[in-house]
Amino acid sequence: MSSAAPLLGSRPADDGHQQERRRRCPSWLGRVVDTEEACAQLRFSGPMILMNMFYYGIPLVSVMFSGHLGDVELAGATLGNSWVTVTGYAFVIGLSGGLETLCGQAYGARLYRRLGLYLQSSLIMSAAASALVSVLWVFTEPVLLLLRQEPRVSRAAAGFVRAQIPGLFAFASLQCLLRYLQMQSVVLPLVAFSAASFALHVALAYLLVGVLGLGIAGASAAVSVTFWAACLMLLAYVLRSEVFNETWKGFSVEAFRYVLPTVKLAAPSAVMVCFEYWAFELLVLVAGLLPNSTVSTSLIAICTSTETIAYMITYGFSAAVSTRVSNEIGAGNVDKAKNAVSVTMKLSVLLAISFVLFLAFCHNLWASLYSGSAVIVSEFAAIAPLLIVSIVLDSAQGVLSGVSRGCGWQHLAALTNLVAFYLIGMPLAIFFAFKLKFYTKGLWAGLICGLVCQACSLLVITVRTKWSKIAETMQQEKASYGGLA
């Protein structure tokens, strides 16, 4: 990586090929969206979407293998997977979000050495956070029993969770490495590594469960082994590749100086992510209190799963805009940062429209993939219009959350999520569901109210952001860094 390493979507001097591409592009499309910026973001977001899906599929494969062991094992693995997600994985994913600000702006400002220091400080912080979470995971069974979960299912879930304690440390480190690479626009290798990890996991799960007969503990242990393999593969890539000669100068005690600045951004980033994860999980729990809870819980679970799948695609655009904004702010290119936000919002609208069309015409087919019950398929058709609205709003807020990580105002986004989901969304969901007796539609309508508040608040913050002030602060920091850059 030379000192002239290009930023994602940076625009070199025009050549004949670029002019030819512009001539081929319809004139109306050029007026609607900056096509060069859009193409750059699509090239970035596509690999990020694939990578996210591969890593997301790893624990799901273990749940599927557990399901073939019996109903109790399936329930235990499902409950355990939900527990590790909301108490651990979501938390460390959020912690790594601080690197999107720090590494992204440092890379744009050409403070390349700082990227390696920020990565090391984040690894230290993530290891400490993982140690704290692992203590909670050790006591999973008594906690689940306290939450009035069925004893046999709680025992199975506890076994599933405990086997993933080693994997939590690997997953936390993996997320830090992914952000370090993402902010340098290194994305294609991430797809290859994630695909290899997924393939390895399928083989491991089959070996431990199907061949060695280790049961639900074996299915979960396969997750830990896979995450460690994925983490070590990425670490070896960073250490051995010449591409990172300028951003990785080796391990240094100087990294401890950057732990506090990392924590200051990582903590609100983790809170921001967890507040949203927890809101969706809480919705499933509340659905269990409705009349005909079996149908209600299944319906909300299908909606939540659909929303998650849709968000995985939004995540690609969120990662793209976070990288673009932080890189351009670090480089002092305020106008390019604003343009990146505008283009990503337009792309998210196109994405939302595609989901609207899919659910409008294929909702029965989609529901039948989850359940063969005619009642659930019929109820899903009735709630599909609300689900469409929530996906549109979630697409918008996902992009705006990426902007927040790129700019470094995770604390504002965390406060927004607290108010939107827990002071507006959940109270209204309970009111609509129980008081007005709208039941599952009421729960999802309350969630939509929270998403409206969240998206509108983030939009106002983005519009009122003093971009030039953020860029000036970064340039002052660059000047103070001096020769160490």
Describe it for me?
- By secondary structure, this protein is mainly α.
- It has one domain (37-476).
- The protein is 83% helix and 0% strand.
- It has 18 helices and no strands.
- It has helices spanning 16-24, 27-32, 35-67, 71-96, 98-108, 112-138, 140-146, 151-162, 165-182, 188-211, 215-240, 259-287, 293-331, 334-370, 374-407, 410-435, 439-463, 467-481.
- It is globular and about 65 Å long.
- Residues 1-22 are annotated as: Disordered.
- Belongs to the multi antimicrobial extrusion (MATE) (TC 2.A.66.1) family.
- One of its GO terms (molecular function) is antiporter activity.
- It is found in: Membrane.
Output the keywords:
485 residues, mainly alpha, 83% helix, disordered N terminus, transmembrane, transmembrane helix
What are the SSEs and their pairings?
Blueprint (H helix, E strand, L loop, with lengths): L15 H9 L2 H6 L2 H33 L3 H26 L1 H11 L3 H27 L1 H7 L4 H12 L2 H18 L5 H24 L3 H26 L18 H29 L5 H39 L2 H37 L3 H34 L2 H26 L3 H25 L3 H15 L4
Helix pairs in contact: 3-4, 3-10, 3-11, 3-13, 4-6, 4-8, 4-9, 4-12, 5-6, 5-9, 5-12, 5-13, 6-9, 6-12, 7-8, 8-11, 9-11, 10-11, 12-13, 12-16, 12-17, 13-14, 13-15, 14-15, 15-17, 16-17
GO molecular function: antiporter activity; xenobiotic transmembrane transporter activity
Family: Belongs to the multi antimicrobial extrusion (MATE) (TC 2.A.66.1) family.
Keywords: Membrane, Transmembrane, Transmembrane helix
